[in-house]
Amino acid sequence: MKVRISLYLMFLMLIYCISAFAGQMNYPHFPIDHSHSSGDGNCKGYAIARAFGKTASSTTCKATDVNLGGFDTNHFETVDTDPIDYDGIKTGDIVYFNENDADHAVYVTSPGSEPADIDCDMIDHDGGEELTGKTLNDVINGLNGCTARGDPTAVYRKIPHWQAELQNKFGNGSNGGQVIFGSDTVNSPYETDEYHWNSVHNIKTLGHNTVVGGYTQIFSEWQKDQSFLYDEIQTEMRFDYNTWSHVVELDAIFDNQYNITFRNEFTGVGGNPGSIKVDGDTEDSPCLKQIKDGTSIQGQAIYQVYDHIQYTFDEWSDEYGSATRNETPDDHEFYTAKYTGKPVPMTYYNLHIEGDPGDYITLAWNTHPNTNVSQYQIWRKVHHNGQTSDPDLIATRNRGTTSYTDYDYKITDGYTDDIVYYDVRAYYSTEGTYANPDWIDEFGEIVEKRTPPESSVDPGRSPVAYDIIAYPNPFNPSTNLHYQLADQAHVILTVHDLLGREIIKLIDSDHPAGYFNIQWNGIDASGNSVSAGMYLYRFVVFQHKGGDAVRKSGKLLLVK
Questions:
Q1: How far apart are CA 135 and CA 111, in angstroms?
Q2: Is 357 helix (H, G, I), strand (E, B) or coil?
Q3: How far apart are the C-alpha atoms of 491 and 486, rounded to whole Å?
Q4: In angstroms, rounded to a whole number, what is the distance separating the alpha carbons of residues 37 and 152?
């Protein structure tokens, strides 16, 4: 039983909600104090309700149920009295009959020049049925079911009392620009003429996407008396207030639009190139996003390779340290991500080892594509007897060089002696950075070095011959020429290119017998560095005791 009662109450509540909603759809009570109950309407109540837009089928203020005793002068004015100018009657007027105390009113639905041409609707008597499609002539003369009322004595017309103040409210606080009311384009702010209660008017703002105060304006919503009305640029408004007069505030609300730019900054590279993430999407840098005031946006700096340089995030230009940042800007903003750039390792540019077992280990590579890579460091480490040495820098080569031969190691068939690791490390002159290590390896064995003559390292013994040897050879950046003299002599020692042209004279002087050493560091007579390659030394000894001159020569290999 209780369940049935509960279901019944829920059903009644549902009916009430539907009725209330339907009532809202018919708009509120018209703005005159009145009463109404089913089947208790009178002619004046009916005519006045019709003048305010109500009908016999309205849910709120059903015209046939409204009971009124007279015409509220706040809302109706007398526009004509006996004798009536029928040609001046308009749709919506109320024609009043009081001849012989008739006290009757009808609502005009269609005007005309004569009573027979003027259509009207009415209740013929208190609590009576609605009569529609009648003429004033029917009412005057009691025709077609109407009670005869005689000639009309007055015409009442509803007074327009409602106004609107329209304006744009831009994000910077200004209220200019233009709006449309009805069909008229007007400047904001704009005060309308007075209109009737429940009248409907088209409104539209023309401020959307205009630039005001340096900001593009983005329409948000229409507000009616500071309450939400509609979220479209164009809509309708209705004068539906229950006061007898009212000025409605109609505001088009706007937000500033901000230009937000996320971009990269690579040292020495113009144009803020590369890629950057904005709201989770990878975009080209610089990336411009336009957002409304109060909107959040996310930017993320990412690792990337641009023009063969690897860029790793350092910090944003405002010293914010995290690669990802979430912002809610209140103005136009630039967010600049700063990076450190290093060259892409040479393993990406065909770094490899050339040669066969028994050959010196030769490294070869393609030129690094970034033209600001100006140098290559040659690094080596060796795995020997289960241990790997620390890396050693064994040479530096300028851009344009694409190979290097390590004369300390030869290639072997397998892991017979050592594993030799090499890294050709590119130098990026723009930022002064080197590529990260990236090693390649080869099986190899160390080359037994030729050492200077034993006597040259034991000055206690006297030389018995005239001789010379260069060590190290090949060399970089310098070599020592060790020579010995068996007796007093005049010595000339020169270095020549392969065409026989003298590069530099190292010695031209008298010497006693003994052991000597002089260094050549790869420069010519003018102090300029010579290029890598093969050179010849010439050693000439003129003995003081006479006899033929002693002449010796040999090759010098300068490697870079």
A1: 10
A2: coil
A3: 12
A4: 28
